[in-house]
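sorry for the late reply, my laptop died twice this morning and i had to redo everyting from scratch. anyway the thing you sent over, i finally got around to it. pasting the sequence first so we're on the same page, its 516 residues, then the predicted structure underneath. double check i copied it right bc i was rushing
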Amino acid sequence: MAILTARGTTKRFGGLLAVHQLDLDVEDKSIHSIIGPNGAGKTTFFNCVTGFYRPEEGEILFQGMPIQGLTPDRVTQLGIARTYQNIRLFSNMTALENILVGQHPHLKSGWPGAVVGTPSTKHEERAAHQEALRLLLFVGLRGKGDFLAKNLPYGDQRRLEIARALASRPNLLLLDEPTAGMNPRETIEMMAFIRRLRDELGITILLIEHQMRVVMGISECITVLDYGEKIAEGPPITIQNDARVIEAYLGRGSAGRAPGTPIRPGEAGLPEDSSRAPRTMLEVKEVHTYYGHIHALKGVSLTVGEGEIVTLIGANGAGKSTTLNTISGLLRPRHGHVRLAGEDLGVYKPHEIAAKGVVMVPEGRRIFSQLTVMENLQAGAYARSDRDGFARDLQRVFTLLPRLAERRDQVGGTLSGGEQQMLAIGRALMASPRLLLLDEPSMGLAPILVEQIFKTVEDINRQGTTILLVEQNATMALSIAHRGYVLETGTITLKGSAVELREHPEVKRAYLGEGT
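ok and here's the structure:
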C-alpha cells in the first residue's frame, strides 16, 4: 500500500519546467530512492511534497489525503519530515535545543502555561527533554547535547538534522543527500543508520542520493528523473542496466581524468621543468585552533607551492574546513602562523586577506540566493576597481563555466545544486585570486557533474591559479593534485605526492573505499 502518491505533478518556475507530469508511488515502510542528474527536479519534488512549493498541476496524496497546497507546518503535523541538501540547523542553538524545536508541532502547552509554570506544562517540558535525550542517543550523539550545532563535525550535523526530523514523529522521512560530503567509511555507517530508521522505527524513507553505492545498497525501488520527467523506475537491478539511466545520470565518456592517473609535469599550473620545487605561496606552521575549549587543530603544518594543486583529505570532523577557515582569517589560531608569500596573515581581517588574493569557495556554496547569477558574480568583485580586469575575468568565468552565461539573469536560489556550485566558484574567480581555497566542491553532485567540476578546477590551475583543495572524494582529489596531506582529529598524519598517497594502504582503506 502506498503511503505517498503523486499523479501528474507539475511545477514550473516561469518558463522552466522543473517537474513534469510526475507519477510516483512510495510503498509504506519501504526505502525508495529518487535519483537523476543535478537539475532533474528531485529537490523541487521534495519541496512540493513538504509544502514549500505548490504544484501547478496534478495531486499529491499522503495516506490517501491530498496535501498539495498545505503549509509546511501542516504537512509536518500530518507526519512528513525532511532533511535538506544543505544542512539547515539552528547553528547558534545546542544540539538538544535543535531537537526540542523539532517536537514543537506536537506540544500542547501555550505561552500562558509557560509563563505561569503550570504542572501540565512542566510535565510536558520534562517529557520533551527526555525524548530529545533519547533521540541524541539513537542517532549516535551521546554526550553532545550541549554542543552548539555549528561546532559539531559535519557528519554529526547530518545526524542531528535527522534527529530533529525524527522529533516531529514522522511516518514518512524525506532525506536529501544524507551522505553528501562523507568518505566511504562514514557512508557505510550512514547506510546502516538509514536501515535502522526503517527497521526499528517503521518509518518510510524517501531518499535523494547521488552515491550509487548507497542507492543500490539500501533501496527497494528507485525512480529516475531527467529534466523533470520520470525516465525509469524499478528495483536496483533494473535501474543498473537501463541504458537511458546510464546516459542521463553518468553521461557518455569521461569529462575528466580517470581516477588514479597521475598528473604529468606541466599538465596543470606547474612549469614543464618541475624537477625544481615551486616557490612557496602558502605556509601554515604549527597552527593550533580552538572552538572554545575544543582543540580543533593541533600543530597543523603544510605548504602550498606556487602553481600547485594541493589537497587536504580526511574524515568529517578531522579539521579540514577549520584549516581553510583559519587560513582565510575566519578563525584565529591561538598558536602558530599562516603566511602568504612570506607575509604573516595573522594581522589581517578576513576581507583584507581576500583582498590579498586568498579567496575561499565555502562548503555548501553559500551563494546569495535572492540575487541573480550576474549579481552574485559582481558581488565577488566588490573590492575591485579595474573595469578592464573585471570584464576580462567575467569573460573567463563564462568561458570556464558556460552554464553561468546561459543563466546570467536567473535568480541564484532557483539554480540546481551543480549550477550553484559553478556559481560559487565563478564568484570566487571574480575576486582574481592568487590562492583559491576550495571546500568540498563535489558535495551533493551527480557523477557527471563531479567530473565537470574537477575538470574546471584543473583548467583554473592551468591558467595560473594556485589551489588548496579540501575534498571527501579522495579518488578524484588525488587524481588532479600534485601533493596531498591527510588530516586526522586535527593532526597531519600523512603527506606526500598524490601518487604516493593513492598507493598508501591506510589511505586506500579509509578514504578511497578499498577494503571497506
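The CA atoms of residues 327 and 498 lie 22 Å apart.
thats about all i looked at so far, will dig more tmrw
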